């Protein structure tokens, strides 16, 4: 097994690592003035029961592990939505299927899943999705102490926020549930499927292609 970029360097500061993790969680908490969803992330550190995320899931890695990380960071609570409820994974999958998707971002997320599971197997002899809550929390606290781990977790949180507040036409935030949970009023007019920004870009390119073809035919 190769040395994971998520492993803590010997000269890394333990207190600094904890602060990094809290900073990432506060980034997520900053958009939740209504629900206070982030509370369970701190309150459940001592929970030791096994998670049911991925227990009977049809997902395969890397999506299985990404789903488990998303739902650990944004768990179900009485006061707000979970990542699963606002379709964070659906949003992420849809995002990478779009024309002109950022495949470097996708590659980094997928590589990070491999690094995460390497470390999980090394520490617990199980992949991340099979860990209990306390083990997942400890592992995430550990990886965020590395630069690669902090960047990876930050990217996941950025996409969680996007999924929570995006227009439902982009596959997250079903029925505007995310907007309601954070007290956000969407802008109008709302986009339709054919008005999604990447669809408009595709339509514009097609018009340019047709115009260029017409010019060539006219010159011919």
From TrEMBL:
Q: Which InterPro entries does the UniProt record give?
A: Gluconate_2DH_su3
Q: Name one Pfam family in it.
A: Gluconate_2-dh3
The protein's name: Gluconate 2-dehydrogenase subunit 3 family protein
């Amino acid at each position: 097994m190769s040395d994971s970029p998520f492993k803590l360097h010997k000269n890394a500061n333990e207190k600094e690592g904890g602060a990094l993790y809290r900073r990432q969680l506060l980034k997520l908490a900053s958009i939740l003035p209504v629900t206070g969803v982030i509370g369970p992330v701190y309150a459940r550190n001592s929970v030791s029961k096994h998670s049911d995320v991925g227990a009977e899931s049809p997902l395969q890695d890397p999506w299985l592990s990404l789903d488990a990380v998303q739902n650990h960071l944004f768990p179900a609570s009485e006061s707000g939505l979970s990542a699963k409820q606002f379709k964070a994974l659906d949003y992420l999958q849809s995002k990478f299927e779009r024309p002109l998707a950022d495949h470097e971002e996708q590659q980094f997320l997928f590589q990070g899943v491999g690094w995460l599971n390497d470390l999980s197997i090394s520490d617990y002899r199980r992949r991340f999705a099979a860990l209990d809550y306390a083990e997942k929390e400890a592992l995430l606290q550990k990886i965020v102490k590395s630069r690669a781990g902090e960047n990876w977790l930050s990217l996941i949180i950025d996409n969680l926020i996007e999924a929570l507040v995006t227009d439902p036409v982009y596959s997250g935030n079903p029925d505007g549930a995310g907007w309601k949970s954070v007290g956000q009023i969407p802008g109008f007019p709302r986009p339709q499927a054919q008005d999604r920004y990447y669809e408009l870009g595709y339509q514009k390119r097609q018009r340019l292609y047709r115009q260029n073809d017409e010019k060539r035919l006219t010159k011919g």
